[in-house]
Design goal:
The complex is a heterodimer of chains A (463) and B (265).
Chain A lengths: L6 E2 L1 H13 L12 H5 L10 E2 L2 H11 L1 H10 L3 E6 L5 H5 L5 E4 L7 H4 L6 H7 L11 H8 L8 E7 L3 H12 L5 E5 L11 E3 L5 E3 H22 L5 H27 L7 H13 L4 H21 L9 E6 L6 H8 L2 E7 L15 H10 L7 H14 L4 E6 L9 H12 L4 E5 L8 H23 L1
Parallel strand pairs in A: 3-4, 3-5, 5-6, 9-10, 9-11, 11-12
Antiparallel strand pairs in A: 1-2, 7-8
Helix pairs in contact in A: 3-13, 7-8, 8-9, 10-15, 11-12, 11-13, 16-17
Chain B lengths: L1 E7 L3 E7 L6 E8 L4 H15 L7 E7 L11 E2 L2 H12 L5 E5 L4 E6 L5 E7 L7 H11 L6 H6 L12 H13 L4 H20 L7 E4 L8 H9 L3 E2 L7 H14 L8
Parallel strand pairs in B: 1-4, 4-5, 6-9, 9-10
Antiparallel strand pairs in B: 1-2, 2-3, 6-7, 7-8
Helix pairs in contact in B: 2-8, 3-5, 3-6, 6-7
Classes of the chains: A alpha/beta (463), B alpha/beta (265).
Amino acid sequence: MTVAPRRITLAEWDQRYATLRSAGLREPDYGGLLRRHVDDGDQRLRKLRMDNSAAALRLWNFLLTEEDRLRRSKECGKKLVGTMKDLGTVPVMSYSLPNLVAFYPDGAWWLPCLLEGDDKLLKLADSMGVDESFCPVRAMLGAFISGDRFPIPGLITCSVGATCDDFSAIAQCVESLGFPILWWEMPHRRKPEPDEAAVELPGGFRAAVEQVAIVKSELERVRHALECYAGLPLAERQLAEGIQRANRVRDTLGQLRDLCFTANPCPMPALEMLIAEMLAIHFCSDANEALSVLQELLDEVRRRVHRGAGILSPNAVRVFWVNPVADLRAMNILEDVGGRVCGTDYLFCHAIDRIPSDLPPMEALARMALADPMVGSPIDRAERIAADVCRFGAQAVVISRIPGASHCAMEGILIAETIRKTMDIPIVEIEVPSLADAMEAGLRTRLEALVETVNASQAERTS
Amino acid sequence: MIFAGIDAGSRTTKVVLLDGDGRDVIAAAVVDQGIEQDLLAESLLDRLLRENGFERSQLRMVVATGYGRKLIRVADVSITEITCQAWGVRHRMPEARTIIDIGGQDSKLLRLHPDGTVGDFVMNDRCAAGTGRFLELLATRLNVRLASLGELAGQSRTPAIISSMCVVFAETEIIGLLASGITPADIAAGVQASLATRVAAMTGQNVAAPIVLTGGVALVPGMQTTLATALGQPLSVPSDPQTTCALGAAILARRRVNGLHERPS
């Protein structure tokens, strides 16, 4: 029997899980009841509403077992690489070597939310003088201090230069604690001079050949470090295969996004889509499994779209969402008040674009890295967002500020102004801390007012 | 048949009763907010009904708005203060293109389309320096009634410069200024200017005229002028600026009953 898709609570998932099991659900080794993660400390799950599909169950279980997976990999003799401030480049290189497992220590920024503050990670960061005036990714510092949130990797890489100031400061604190970091330089992406040799980057940007060469030489340094750490050479063929695998993940995610954002009714909740998108940059410590998880999610979405089934009303207001949220509940709230996500820019759109496969691998990776929205002018990012807002037919935009994040204090204003040049749609800025419970009323009011505003305009046009 | 709008704000609760035509305000009242927001709103509603010779049964629909809107059990439906404020102002000043609403603990900017629908909005509920809370703190510190603060500020010859953007630190600054002999009038004028600067910063550029100021702070004498100076543009204050949001809620109650969309006619 086909069950109607909907968002359900953790308690409802208990029942749903039993039903799925009795219907013959087959799960990977990390599968199981979602409630067990609450017993492990992930208290936030009790306040979330999650999609009721087996595909979503697998996604959640995959996300919440990353720590176990890393520890198991280490026990099996694999070598761990912490790829900090890296939105999708070094992991591709790392997974091209058979004995390396890359992960994203920055992902610790969600731990204060998932553990509902019980993790003490932020307090540990406070003790290092890295207080709430910094981005919530400071939880990563706490994780390095406590040493019990992920196994400490034998090699840590971190990009620096045209990246977030906060992050650089936090990463330097990590290094000062005795965790050596291989820093690699990312120059600010500038527009090529008229007489300067330039190349196309993924995402429609252009960069001077000279800049690409700088990034390539930096990545060659990282490649050498990975080879030394792995004790194996990284052949061009292996790298090309690694890029192919990353592209399969990106292609699958691209199809998932396109289908999910354009179908009506909305076939998959914003929360699951946020988590799915994050897989593009770090693969959740298993590149092959990440692809399978995304494929199952895509299959589920296809089935729903085929049946015309969705999790929200067909009248839900189409909202483009800018930047990821530290508190996952924010995505639920948008849907609770009558909105749906119809497009996103979670700061790493370049990691969803295909890595060029018609170029030498290192050249291709350098161009992809330089297409990172955070390393160029905020205007470049704003223009890409404005184009996507238009492409996905958004009726409103939410710009979610990350408290303390300083890659561009004016970015929200610039994005809003750029969108307004071409579209007359309401735009609201919000700020979502790791635990937004105390300010939920204000957050809800903003999102609800956004939905009301669109509906009022809609009524005006149709009358 | 009458309609009611209840604005359960952070500092006060406002109730407006509207007649069946949706044209005339039968009654409006404001009380200080309390812990039992629901009971407070209901008792104010009952009092207004009683004083104006109505019974509950004649009340066709109640819309709640404001931060506490979800707590008001007597309401049939809740609508955000953004939508309600726009409707209330539109009723009183249809030509308005921008609304600046400064309440006790938040401030908002609403940009309106020429047809009166909301085009966009900005809300500040994180920084008390742009809200009426700043004035309350000052009144307490100077030991004057809030209502007298504007009059006091009007006596200023050289408004003090309040440099802090945080109300808590501004209080320390005020204590320092008093200790150094700056007059209460100059401090009051300085705080008004500081509040206006914070609000003007929130509005950004391209604020379309006519601009309307609403909320409890609009009742403070001098704020209209101070804010106009900070914005570099004149602004108007509607009659009874504290109840425009509740009025909008009452108008929306009537429109819902009449099966009309939430857009201006």
